[in-house]
Design goal:
This protein has helices at residues 12-27, 51-70, 81-85, 87-93, 109-117, 163-167, 175-187, 205-208, 213-223, 241-249, 266-272, 278-291, 310-323, 350-373, and strands at 3-8, 31-32, 41-46, 75-80, 99-101, 122-124, 145-149, 151-152, 171-172, 192-196, 228-231, 253-258, 296-303, 327-332, 379-388, 393-397, 409-412, 422-431, 434-440. It is an alpha/beta fold. The protein has 3 domains: 3-124, 3-Layer(aba) Sandwich (Rossmann fold); 145-373, tm_1862 like domain (pyruvate-formate lyase- activating enzyme); 379-440, Nucleic acid-binding proteins (OB fold (Dihydrolipoamide Acetyltransferase, E2P), Beta Barrel), CATH 2.40.50. The strands form 4 sheets. Strands 2-1-3-4-5-6 form a 6-stranded parallel beta sheet, with helices on both faces. The protein has a 6-stranded parallel beta sheet with strand order 7-10-11-12-13-14. A 5-stranded mixed barrel has the order 15-16-17-19-18. Helix 13 runs parallel beside helix 14 (350-373).
């Protein structure tokens, strides 16, 4: 039986694609191995969103190629966004690759593996806008948490973003299809369901003619018993009153919302082609905090966008200080081929971008440290993710912490705590973005 190893790069949406391909290979009779040095075929599911992600993908391909020299690897296949975006260049510039698959060709992964084992070069680029959505998966996250992709592609056309070029227009899955997958995930032991898409708030507009995220959440709630349902990638200008009410009234929809604002200066937002102004963002935040007590708001912001002045940047920093987001991330602008922003006047020096990033993240760290200090002495409900054998402590997350992107709670316990169990933890210490405590049993 041929052993196949996987390297999944980029976002959680890409991870779901990896999990679909894993299932297809398992069904086709391939053996999946977590040890790259044991794999005869290494598959790298690439990201191509920004320059750093492209470099990471290429580095991983070259690292895998070294395993051809001293490991058991005989063939390398690259899939995903980088391949889709640079389909002509990838095979030419990376002769180490034996096969490539575009984002619409996940269904061909078993055929690709069989072909390269026969010594053939393999390439497949099916129409990404007609390829199947969803599919059976092998979950690679902790067994109690999973991502559920509700749509593919994006119609927002932000000037800096290559996703519409890579993934195509937005295509929503039906409510029935998503609910069926949620039920399958529940049967596997999933207790936390993270709904994802390029823009979850736009879900359903293409097939139902209206924003349908609240309806989808109600259906998942009614037809599963999954205790935590989490919303990621919600655009502030599309947060409907119906969705706010669902967030307020549904006890299993955790009081957490990820709303990527990208910036707050109206002039920068306009050049980004963001669908909403500073006033719209402020209105959404005020409404959520008024209507949903204890809501945790996560956001991301971009610094160094073409034409971003010192005044624009200072406005963003002040906004972060004033609004005091509970969770926050930032990144620097990357000029991507084929996007409008790459050709805009006013491109900013890389060092200035990095300096602004450092200042912004330090601004947020001060906010986070103050917020975490307020939690000392409180008891929080934590979903246990596992046990750290080095530090000899358990770790997990509160409802305020999404997997992969937010902080953790590290805690001790006099009795064994199983992964996936909910436990009450009294907080005793704060460490920047993480908390420390002890289980109350």
């Amino acid at each position: 039986m041929t052993k196949v190893g996987f390297i999944s790069l980029g976002c959680s949406k890409n991870l779901v694609d990896t999990e679909v391909m894993l299932h297809k290979l398992h069904t086709a009779g391939f053996e999946i191995t977590p040890a790259e040095e044991e794999a005869e075929i290494i598959i790298i599911n690439t990201c191509g969103f920004i320059e750093s992600a492209k470099r990471e993908a290429i580095d991983n391909i070259l690292d895998a190629a070294r395993l051809k020299e001293w490991g058991k690897c005989r063939h390398i296949i690259a899939t995903g966004c980088l391949v889709e975006r640079y389909r002509e260049e990838v095979m030419r510039e990376l002769p180490e690759l034996d096969g490539i698959l575009g984002v619409g060709s996940l269904c061909d992964i078993a055929e690709a593996c069989s072909a390269v084992m026969r010594g053939e070069k393999y390439s497949s680029f099916r129409d990404k806008e007609t390829s199947a959505l969803g599919g059976d998966r092998i979950i690679t996250t902790e067994p109690h948490t999973a991502y559920l992709k509700i749509s593919e592609g994006c119609d927002n056309l932000c000037t800096y973003c290559a996703i519409p070029l890579i993934r195509g227009r937005m295509r929503s899955r039906t409510v029935e299809d998503i609910v069926a997958e949620a039920q399958d995930l529940e049967s596997m032991g999933v207790k936390e369901l993270n709904l994802i898409a390029q823009d979850t708030t736009r879900y359903g507009l293409d097939i139902y003619g209206e924003y349908s995220l609240a309806r989808l959440v109600r259906e998942i709630t009614a037809k599963t018993n999954i205790p935590w349902i989490r919303l990621l990638y919600c655009y502030p200008d599309k947060i409907t009153d119906e969705l706010v009410a669902e967030l307020r009234d549904n006890p299993r929809l955790v009081k957490y919302m990820d709303i990527p604002i990208q910036h707050i200066s109206d002039s920068v937002l306009k050049r980004m082609n963001r669908h909403g102004s500073r006033a719209d963002i402020e209105s959404a935040i005020e409404r959520l905090r008024r209507e949903v007590p204890d809501i945790v708001l996560r956001t991301t912001a971009m610094v160094g966008f073409p034409g971003e002045s010192e005044t624009d940047f200072e406005e963003l920093c002040q906004f972060v200080k004033d609004v005091r987001f509970e969770r926050f991330g930032a990144f620097t602008f990357s000029p991507e081929e084929g996007t409008v922003a790459a050709e805009l006047d006013g491109q900013i020096d890389e060092q200035i971008k990095q300096d602004r990033y450092d200042i912004l993240m330090q601004t947020q760290l001060t906010v986070t440290e103050e917020q975490n200090a307020e939690k000392i002495g409180k008891t929080l409900k934590v979903l246990c993710d596992g046990f750290d054998t080095v530090a000899e402590v358990y770790y997990g997350r509160t409802y305020a912490d999404a997997p992969d992107v937010d902080g953790k709670v590290y805690f001790t316990s006099p009795r064994k705590i199983n992964s996936g169990a909910f436990v009450e933890v009294r907080i005793t210490e704060a460490l920047d973005y993480d908390l420390v405590g002890e289980a109350i049993l």
